[in-house]
Every structure is written in C-alpha cells, then in structure tokens.
C-alpha cells in the first residue's frame, strides 16, 4: 500500500484539498495516509462499495471498543445511543422510527417556514460589507431544524454553541480543552432536552418531538435516553453540514459566475446536486472492519479501520468527465456527499430543500451580491466549510 504524508491542517490543503486527493487516487485504490494513521479510499467506486459493504461499519466490533477517558464520559453517554454510531437491530429500529416521523409531507410543509426565515434574514442584511456565514448560512438551518423538531427558535444561538462544541471532537488534532468543552456541552444539552421533553409530554403538537415522544410511550420502541440522543443528533446533524453546504454554494455560484437561470425552478435540482458534488461539506467518514478480509486488493484485519474520502470520490475522473469543472448542466450521477448504504443521510431531503428555497431567494432579492474578499475555509477538517464569506449586497 503506498504511503502519503500531509497534515490535514496544512494551509494549502485546508483551502483546497482536491489536488492532494488526486495524488492519493493516483497512488492506488487504497493508500495509507500517515498523518491520519489510516488506510484511505479516494476513488468513487471504492468509496461507494465500502459504504454499502456489511463487512464494514461504524460501531466498534466486540473487543475493540475504545477506552473512554472519564472527562469524555458525558459526551459518549449521548453518542452511545446515536443511530449514526450503531449497526444492526438498534440502528434499524432507531432509524425507522425517525424516518416514520420524518415524512416527505412534513418536510414539504416546511417550504413557507423556509421562505419566511430566509426573507427575515435578508431583511436584516446591512448596507456595508458583511459576513454571510453568521448572517445567513448559519441561521437558516438551525432555525428550520428548531421548527421541525418543535424546539423554541430563541434557543438557536444556544443550540449552535452546544453543537459546535460537540462536533469539534471529530477534529483530527483535537486537544484536551476541546474534549472537555464537548463533554460540558453534551451534559448541558441533554439536561435541557430532558427537561424540555418532560414539559412537552402534555403538550402534543405537529412536530418531531411529539412523534418521538409517542414512540417512546408506545412500549419498548424508544428509551428515554434514545429519545434524548435522537433529538440531539437531529439538531446537530440537522444544521452543521447544511450551514457549510449553503456557504460553499453561495461562494461557488459567485466565483463561477453561474448564470441565474441555473437557480430557476426547472434547473435548480441539477445545480444543487452539482454544488454538492463539486465541494461537499463532509469529506471523511471512517469504518471499522468486522472480519479478516481483503478489499480493493488489500488485506484487512478485524478491528482495523479504513477512511472513506467522500470529497475525493466526487472528483474521480474515472467517474466524472472533467471533475474539477463546476457544471450545473452535468448529467447527474449519484454523488457521495450524503453517503450511501444503511447510514445514508436521513436529512438529505431537508438539506436539499433548504438549498432549493434559500439560494434562489437570496440571489433574487440580492441581484448585485458580490464577494468583497476571497472566501476562507476554516481549519476544521471534519467539516469542510467556510470560516468567512465576506459579501456586499
Ligand atoms: C448538506 C447537508 C448534509 C450533508 C452533506 C450530510 C451528510 C451525511 C452523511 C455523509 C451521512 C452518512 C455518514 C456515514 O455514512 O458514516 C449522514 C448521516 C446522517 N445525517 Fe446527514 N447530512 C446533511 C444534512 C443533514 C440534515 C439536515 C439532517 C437532519 C435533519 C441529517 C441527519 C443525518 C442523520 C440522522 C444521519 C445518520 C443516519 C444513520 O446513521 O442511519 N443530515 N449525513
């Protein structure tokens, strides 16, 4: 297996990881990335196959469960009940309960709310140059996920703070301070959810918390701990990636001078898929190996881990013509940005809808929007996203 070395915090890599992904892909179907201490797959076919292959999964195989230090216990008390970290029966049960509550009717019904939130944010844009991330990209997803779940929207800023602290644990170079902050946020977030769920038991409404409470009260389907974790997972996963997909989408559309017709009703779906392929917000997911086996010509042992580079798979020239070109007319193939297989993103229809409503409204109401500074990506590789997006409207 060929070996490659590059820090995921390397400034050039942070701003543009794709040239390094090309090197990895040219090195073989599976290569070793020394700085991550991980064999990684960067080709489209390999990533797509691994995501669907039951020899691999997200939950540690028996005997390989990592030791959890005391200062991270509170964080893992939440993670232990997360469908994203489970396989088998518990994953299927939790996922199907969420999918049952996450109906396409309920998602579609959010269109007027999305329009209202987007318009409200645009109304507040200042006259001088400003950062579109906090003013827009961060706020649309958190406010809509609050409405979908049935959590007060005034909690948005607090939820963002907790969520940012928790997901920072997935940063490759995390420190003790990051871990302690994540555990503190997990404790506060779950205390809030517990008391909020208690309060909501006697006040049913047409929202996800009500559906999840019903599943919890309906016999053995959902324990209270699972209910709390599922709410936290949906609130966190429900906005972190979407924030960056919106920010990057605006950057790409402006930098590429994309004609506005590509945001029209009949063309926007193709544009969204191309935006998500071209520069997705999540680049690396890991899988445990469940049996001694071989994959892509490499021997693997039970208890090994492999890394799947979703962002690299989307730029594989064996799959995509001229992959580094942003082309909203591209005949859409399935990009890997939402994953595949049993963990395929539950929120994909909502994320797509948020982009479908927010982007055309932004460009329609701010026809003269332009970048005032080159956009800067943040050095938080678990999310490939912008630290700043300075614009004038
Ligand atoms: C553009 C925005 C988004 C992107 C790029 C994205 C991407 C992903 C990816 C790649 C996975 C699979 C992880 C893996 O296989 O290891 C995933 C899983 C998941 N996503 Fe998303 N996501 C987005 C938005 C959302 C939203 C809006 C929600 C919820 C409202 C959400 C909820 C989830 C959940 C619950 C899972 C776990 C599913 C499971 O384990 O069965 N995501 N997402």
UniProtKB/TrEMBL annotation:
Entry keyword annotation includes Heme: yes
InterPro entries named among the record's database cross-references: Cyt_P450 (IPR001128), Cyt_P450_B (IPR002397), Cyt_P450_CS (IPR017972), Cyt_P450_sf (IPR036396)
SUPFAM superfamilies reported for this sequence: Cytochrome P450 (SSF48264)
Keyword annotations from UniProtKB, A to Z: Heme, Iron, Metal-binding, Monooxygenase, Oxidoreductase
A Pfam family hit: p450
Source organism, top-level taxon: Bacteria
Molecular functions per Gene Ontology: heme binding; iron ion binding; monooxygenase activity; oxidoreductase activity, acting on paired donors, with incorporation or reduction of molecular oxygen
Family as reported in the entry's similarity comment: Belongs to the cytochrome P450 family.
Family annotation (PANTHER family): CYTOCHROME P450 YJIB-RELATED, P450, PUTATIVE (EUROFUNG)-RELATED
Protein name: Cytochrome P450
Organism from which the protein derives: Celeribacter ethanolicus
């Amino acid at each position: 297996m060929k070996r490659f070395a590059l820090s995921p915090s390397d400034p050039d890599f942070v701003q543009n990881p794709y040239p390094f992904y090309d090197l990895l892909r040219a090195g073989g179907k599976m290569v070793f990335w020394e700085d991550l201490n991980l064999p990684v797959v960067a080709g489209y076919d390999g990533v797509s196959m691994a995501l669907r292959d039951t020899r691999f999964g997200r939950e540690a195989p028996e005997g390989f469960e990592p030791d959890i230090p005391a200062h991270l216990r509170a964080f893992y008390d939440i993670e232990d009940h997360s469908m994203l970290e489970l396989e088998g029966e518990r994953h299927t049960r939790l996922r199907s309960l969420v999918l049952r509550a996450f109906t396409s009717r309920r998602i579609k019904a959010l269109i007027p709310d999305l329009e209202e939130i987007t318009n409200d944010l645009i109304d507040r844009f200042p006259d001088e140059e400003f950062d579109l991330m906090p003013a827009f990209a961060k706020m649309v997803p958190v406010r809509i996920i609050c409405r979908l779940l049935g959590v007060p929207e005034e909690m948005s800023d607090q939820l963002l703070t907790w969520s940012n602290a928790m997901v920072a644990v997935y940063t490759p170079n995390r420190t003790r301070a990051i871990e302690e902050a994540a555990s503190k946020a997990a404790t506060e977030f779950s205390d809030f959810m517990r008391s909020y769920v208690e309060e909501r038991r006697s006040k049913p409404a047409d929202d996800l918390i009500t559906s999840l409470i019903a599943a919890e009260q309906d016999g053995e389907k959902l324990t209270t701990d699972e209910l709390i974790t599922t709410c936290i997972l949906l609130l966190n996963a429900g906005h972190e990636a979407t924030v960056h997909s919106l920010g990057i989408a605006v950057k790409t559309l402006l930098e590429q001078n994309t004609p506005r017709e590509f945001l029209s009703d009949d063309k926007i779906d193709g544009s969204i898929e191309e935006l998500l392929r071209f520069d997705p917000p999540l680049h690396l997911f890991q899988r445990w190996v469940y049996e001694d086996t071989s994959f892509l010509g490499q021997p693997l042992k039970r208890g090994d881990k492999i890394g799947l580079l979703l962002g690299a798979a989307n730029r594989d020239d064996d799959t995509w013509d001229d992959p580094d070109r942003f082309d909203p007319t591209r005949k859409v193939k399935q990009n890997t940005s939402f994953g595949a297989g049993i963990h395929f993103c539950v929120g994909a229809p909502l994320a797509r809808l948020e982009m479908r409503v927010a982007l055309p409204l932004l460009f329609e109401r701010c026809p003269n929007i332009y970048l005032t500074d080159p956009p800067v990506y943040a050095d938080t590789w678990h999310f490939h996203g912008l630290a700043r997006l300075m614009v004038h409207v």
